[in-house]
């Protein structure tokens, strides 16, 4: 289906047979308080990203230290490597579906996520999902920056003979670690300051470089170990019975939560797509295959490390630091740097930069939003968010996934069920237009979000270990005890509830309006 505004209209025109729509230059309301150049629909002539660009984007984003260590977190919870890889693969196939659904609006209309959210939440109400997404991205930016800085510190310490580790302490950590963290933060802000075109070129060459680095690590450990060791033959501590499923489902939701952020703001990238085919095939080839391959590589390399060093070393930085080869250390350092920068900028800076610009378009542009993201990412103390596997997978990823799944359900229902992919671009920027609702707020979206969010995360709970210590900020029996059983399925519960409720509230209104 294409835009209902007639071709050749001054408001909009169908640009090509792929159904891509753009605003005529004179139709964009530049004087609107809800418009600026960064939020403006991308002209069709500038929508040039190909299948390779999207695949490279996902390859470079998936190849990062947290992705590598996802399998280790699941093994630490009692799974064997086959169960861990299966969980990761299934989660990424599932999350690909809403990714493609929300990504469709990007190539067709050239709009970013916060502008797409205006169709369902209203011009002002869109700040609710935008700021939630921005807050999550700030958290992820801080986590990735801390991990990247820690990696640089570990390898740098090895190159200096361990002198860095003996340096004076600041807040419980050696001061060179804090220096690496700050420098790594500054490098990322400098790159994003160059803009989206520079980011596309960076991702294009970063993707193959990181793949090569991962296979170099695999070949090295295989040679050292003369095989891949005993980890591959270790049985699951959970089996496939009653002990497995209570761990599997919350873990699956946590793995989905790992990329649930991008399932919302993927239009921030697909708005530059040359066609629907490019974004569909690029994402399908880039996301589930890469994450599964990376999980398998992590398991193989870790198993080899068990033979060589007598322990399973899941952290690729710690493993690389075991070598005494200076060239190998430098290669590992560069690989870690490129891998972490590529995922952090693309996944955790682009979106909040747009989201914060949406909050005050006349005062915050893309670059200012990126700087604010960087500052908040430090202030949240990211090192605390990844302190334990339980806290990381169940608390952080689980709660984040539940909330973001709720927003995804509303976006998908609005775009595909209520509007059948038809949007009126000028009204997305115009007070008093069809997406103004009541003073810029659509109460139906807010109700769907509130109900879905409570059901998804209201029962969030913390696990209790054998010593009776609670690992997380929630009560052991859940914030809302009778909702505790739903917490293990937070993403799915939030998405399904908000999708159905929003559609039920909006369809009668649209029939009346038409």
Give the total of domains.
Answer: 1
Total DSSP E strands: 6
Find the CATH topology.
Hydantoin permease
CA radius of gyration: 23 Å
Categorize the overall geometry. Answer: globular
SSE arrangement, N to C: EEHHHHHHEEHHHHHHHHHHHEEHH
Which architecture would the CATH scheme give at its second level? Orthogonal Bundle
Strand content: under 5%
Which structural category do the helix and sheet elements fall into? mainly alpha
The stretches of 5 or more residues where confidence is low (pLDDT under 50) are 1-10
Major β-sheet annotation? 2 strands, antiparallel
Total DSSP helices:
19
- Percent of residues in helices comes to 55-70%
CATH superfamily: Hydantoin permease
**Terminal Cα separation, in Å?**
17 Å
Q: Which strand order do you get reading across the main beta sheet?
A: 1-2
The residue-averaged pLDDT reads 82
Name of the CATH first level:
Mainly Alpha
Pfam families: Transp_cyt_pur
Family: Belongs to the purine-cytosine permease (2.A.39) family.
InterPro entries: NCS1, Pur-cyt_permease, Uracil/uridine/allantoin_perm
GO cellular component, one term: plasma membrane
Features:
514 residues; mainly alpha; Hydantoin permease; two-stranded antiparallel ribbon; globular; disordered N terminus; Uracil/uridine/allantoin_perm
Brief overview, please?
The protein is mainly α and 514 residues long. The protein is built from 19 helices and six strands. Helix 5 (113-121) runs antiparallel to helix 6 and helix 16 (389-418) runs parallel beside helix 19.
């Amino acid at each position: 289906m294409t835009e209902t505004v007639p071709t050749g209209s001054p408001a909009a025109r169908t640009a090509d047979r792929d159904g891509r729509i753009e605003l005529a230059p004179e139709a964009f309301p530049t004087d609107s308080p809800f418009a600026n150049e960064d939020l403006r629909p991308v002209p069709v002539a500038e929508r040039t990203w190909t299948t390779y660009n999207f695949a490279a984007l996902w390859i470079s984003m998936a190849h990062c230290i947290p992705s590598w260590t996802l399998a280790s977190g699941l093994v630490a919870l009692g799974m064997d490597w086959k169960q861990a890889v299966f969980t990761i693969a299934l989660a990424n196939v599932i999350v690909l579906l809403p990714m493609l659904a929300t990504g469709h609006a990007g190539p067709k209309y050239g709009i970013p996520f916060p502008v797409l959210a205006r169709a369902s939440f209203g011009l002002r109400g869109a700040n609710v999902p935008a700021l939630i997404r921005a807050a999550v991205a700030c958290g992820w930016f801080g986590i990735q920056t801390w991990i990247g800085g820690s990696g640089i510190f570990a390898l740098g310490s090895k190159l200096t003979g361990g002198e860095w580790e003996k340096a004076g302490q600041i807040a419980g950590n050696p001061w060179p670690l804090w220096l690496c963290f700050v420098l790594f933060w500054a490098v990322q802000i400098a790159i994003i300051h160059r803009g989206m075109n520079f980011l596309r070129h960076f991702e294009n060459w970063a993707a193959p470089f990181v793949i090569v680095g991962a296979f170099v690590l695999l070949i090295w450990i295989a040679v050292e170990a003369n095989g891949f060791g005993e980890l591959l033959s270790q049985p699951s501590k959970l089996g496939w019975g009653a002990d497995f499923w209570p761990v599997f489902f919350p873990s699956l939701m946590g793995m989905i939560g790992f990329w649930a952020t991008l399932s919302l703001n993927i239009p921030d990238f697909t708005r530059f797509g040359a066609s629907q085919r490019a974004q569909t095939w690029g994402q399908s080839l880039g996301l589930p295959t890469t994450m599964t391959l990376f999980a398998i590589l992590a398991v193989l390399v870790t198993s080899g490390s068990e033979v060589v060093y007598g322990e399973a070393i899941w952290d690729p930085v710690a493993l690389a630091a075991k070598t005494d080869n200076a060239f190998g250390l430098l290669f590992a350092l560069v690989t870690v740097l490129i891998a972490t920068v590529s995922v952090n900028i693309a996944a955790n800076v682009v979106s909040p930069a747009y989201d914060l610009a949406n909050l005050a378009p006349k005062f915050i542009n893309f670059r200012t939003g990126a700087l604010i993201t960087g500052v908040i990412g430090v202030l949240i103390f990211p090192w605390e968010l990844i302190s334990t596997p339980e806290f990381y997978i169940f608390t952080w990823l689980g709660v984040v996934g539940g909330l973001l799944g709720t927003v995804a359900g509303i976006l998908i229902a609005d775009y595909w069920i209520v509007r059948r992919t038809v949007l009126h671009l000028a009204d997305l920027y115009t007070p008093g237009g069809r997406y103004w609702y009541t003073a810029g707020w659509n109460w139906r979206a807010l109700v769907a979000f509130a109900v879905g969010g409570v059901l998804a995360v209201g029962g969030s709970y913390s696990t209790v270990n054998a010593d009776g210590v609670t690992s997380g900020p929630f009560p052991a029996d859940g914030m809302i005890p009778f909702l505790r059983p739903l917490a293990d399925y937070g993403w799915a519960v939030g998405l399904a509830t908000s999708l159905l409720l929003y559609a039920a509230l909006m369809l009668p209104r649209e029939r009346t309006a038409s």
